[in-house]
Amino acid sequence: MNYPVYNLKNEKIGNIRLSDDIFKVKNNPDLLHQVMVSQMSNARRVLAHTKGRGEVRGGGIKPWRQKGTGRARHGSIRSPIWIGGGITFGPTKERNFSRKIPQKMNKQALRIALSMKAEEKNLKILDILKLENYKTQKMVGLLFELFKGNIEKIRKNSSFVLILLGKNDYSKNIARASRNIPYVKTIRNANLNVLDVMSYKQILLDKESLDVIKNNLEKNVSAESFPKGEGK
């Protein structure tokens, strides 16, 4: 399929041929959901933790003698039936929420996500994505120039633009200029993943990033796969 290419002034300078194997794939909502849930599970941090009877303080001696007091028998104040004792079935930080997704499923889901962005015209391809310096004001001006018809959406949407970066020197300027903009996220083109693609309204990339995507996802090309299950 043919797709327009723009310069930094948002002027169309030509078309580029996108691979049908990557950008024209039939939708599969179940596969997308499975991969996205797996990525979110793998990124989940286990914070809630309750102490068991072996972790709480105190209880080194028997509270009172076994018989003759008229009270119930107790061996430790760390027992779960005591106030301040251990918790029996509370959440613990040893829980594991990680899930594994096969490479083929992960790649196919990414193809579907990119195809959806291309079909919705939410894929913005530039000839070159370059800033001479890393000023945030320059980056904001560039984004408002590239997405003129979506200025109000940019201001209201906290997840508007996902920018793919290469390994060149000027990509560092893009990353530094974007890090304080709330509606922008930058990632390396080799770390492209389904969750980020589906979470952001627009995808901004240049021809260099497009070549990396092609090398990694085209079916007849042998290359390194994308990292599995990364949320960010």
What fraction, in percent, of the residue positions are helical?
25-40%
Q: What is the percentage of strand-forming residues?
A: 5-15%
Spell the H/E element sequence.
EEHHHEHHEHEHEH
Ranges where pLDDT stays below 50 over 5 or more residues in a row are 221-232
Look at the structure and give the mean pLDDT.
87
The end-to-end span amounts to 29 Å
Please name the fourth-level CATH homologous superfamily of the largest domain: Ribosomal protein L4/L1
CATH topology of the largest domain: Ribosomal Protein L4, Chain: A
Largest sheet: 4 strands, parallel
What is the second-level CATH architecture of the largest domain? 3-Layer(aba) Sandwich
Task: Decide which structural class fits the backbone.
Answer: alpha/beta
What is the CATH C-level name of the largest domain? Alpha Beta
Shape: elongated
What is the strand tally? 6
Radius of gyration: 26 Å
How many structural domains can be distinguished in the coordinates? 2
Q: Treating each run of at least 4 consecutive H or I residues as one helix, how many helices?
A: 8
Order of strands side by side in the largest beta sheet? 3-6-4-5
